[in-house]
């Protein structure tokens, strides 16, 4: 997933369930494991629900096991039955526990005879936390309704009853019925030429964890971008998307050169409406992406590098629990940088690494001690909270440090071997370390001590000697910013004409938290930042202008907040507004308008910010 900023999900402190390996799931994989899912779904747009059945193939581990325990959230269960090898069905008794706020409802199915397959017939709730339903008015082309899933972290359980833990992998087949004018896609091989006949079939032949289960349906056009890649988007967006992502094959090829063959066959990208709460989601074979990266100059294509990198780090080698999520995100952010360097050059890769490192340096000190650790104590961290800047940016910084110490040749060979060794497995931080010790640290003595490794993985903060890339262009921007703030360089004399998105981000990121109002107004007059179509720049600009008390940007900021539901690009504006009573009142008003277009996850974050501010008043 691509987030780019700490999620203020509130503190979802989890009760440490009996299952020490994944406190975020009721599943009991030591008793029985799901190995395959057969899914039959009907998409009901008017009711905002999926109706259907999930048939789970089971591998019973404990001969004495009495039941199959599944994760669910807000599912209406109609029937549970055992399926014999000859297709004969027998009803099974089951109990659905009261809903836990974080984990959902534990579904316990009595199955002392250990059936080979169990079928659950069910319906999802219109409020399913892992699904968003959009009316035609909320889409770009306003013709048809749209729906999509976001299963990471623990939201698959809101649309499929299953063992919702990344430690458990299964293959799946799906048959989805939809209105005839709609195209359905899933995290499996998709057929770009499939007619719009209302019935779509999918097969994911590789074992994947539940958070990579994904579905979307809507008015989708398709355009090829290479021999094994295409973009799916609403008709009015598809050409722009195909242009922005035209380097996809180059990116795949560059990653294969570094880390071995792409294991998943096709790599397609689905561009979602602007309410998609994240930057991207690495659903296998079909990355789900925000339209906010379609800025016309490919400057935000690192999002594709990131999601593509997950085809190795995350989808191939998966963190076994949410506490280990840095194995997905830290490794992926590192690989993303290497892909960017290979295709777009070292200068851009260094800029992106510096942007994230500087942001982390600024934010990490304010985090709780446990949250500063790559591998935190799982008792103090929720599944969604684990996806923080630390997992991404401290994780990738650690890997860049390893690369620097061991040399690129040795480290590349090591990482390639790591992906091969753990392919299609879910592993813990400790399993990664057990592999690293003999295969990297011990193999090349004197480069890095084991204590240093432990300090990176289990320590707080950022180690003192963590290396930073050098960017001459960023250095020049630092000088210009200083001169501009000192009044020795006028806003219109800034050498900003050729600045790319990252350079604007860097300039704005390092302005004082509350910059002088007159300076910001001069900046806006010279460079017309208010109303920018580039949401990365807009998010930073409006945050500064609001903090400085510039009410003239409020309407444009509100437009940004209403148009974009991506958590990372929208919530900083809420945070800036709520600092004053008048701003809080305005933010409440904006939210009342924007809420219906937001994803449930975005709603949750914004409501958290507003509630906290109201309380502090
Ligand atoms: Zn990611």
In words, what does this structure look like?
By secondary structure, the protein is an alpha+beta fold. The chain has 17 helices and 21 strands. The protein has helices at 235-244, 248-259, 302-309, 326-344, 346-363, 389-406, 408-421, 429-441, 450-458, 472-486, 501-509, 517-527, 535-547, 554-563, 567-577, 581-594, 600-616; strands spanning 32-44, 49-60, 67-72, 76-83, 89-91, 94-96, 105-110, 117-123, 131-134, 146-149, 169-177, 183-186, 199-209, 215-218, 221-226, 229-233, 268-271, 280-281, 286-289, 317-319, 425-427. Strand 1 (32-44) and strand 2 form a beta hairpin. The radius of gyration is 24 Å and the shape is globular. The two termini are 35 Å apart. Zinc ion (ZN) is lined by residues 1-2, 306, 310, 329, 332.
Strand order across the largest sheet: 5-4-8-2-1-11-13
Helix % is 25-40%
Radius of gyration: 24 Å
Uncertain stretches? 5-19
Number of helices: 17
Small molecules bound in the structure, each named once: zinc ion
Structural category is: alpha+beta
Terminal CA distance reads 35 Å
Shape: globular
Spell out the blueprint of helices and strands.
Elements: E1 32-44, E2 49-60, E3 67-72, E4 76-83, E5 89-91, E6 94-96, E7 105-110, E8 117-123, E9 131-134, E10 146-149, E11 169-177, E12 183-186, E13 199-209, E14 215-218, E15 221-226, E16 229-233, H1 235-244, H2 248-259, E17 268-271, E18 280-281, E19 286-289, H3 302-309, E20 317-319, H4 326-344, H5 346-363, H6 389-406, H7 408-421, E21 425-427, H8 429-441, H9 450-458, H10 472-486, H11 501-509, H12 517-527, H13 535-547, H14 554-563, H15 567-577, H16 581-594, H17 600-616
Parallel strand pairs: 1-11, 16-17, 17-19, 20-21
Antiparallel strand pairs: 1-2, 2-8, 3-7, 4-5, 4-8, 6-7, 9-10, 10-14, 11-13, 12-14, 15-16, 18-19
Helix pairs in contact: 2-3, 2-4, 3-4, 4-5, 4-6, 5-6, 5-11, 6-7, 7-8, 11-13, 13-14, 13-15, 14-15, 14-16, 15-17, 16-17
Bound molecules: zinc ion.
Zinc ion binds next to helix 4.
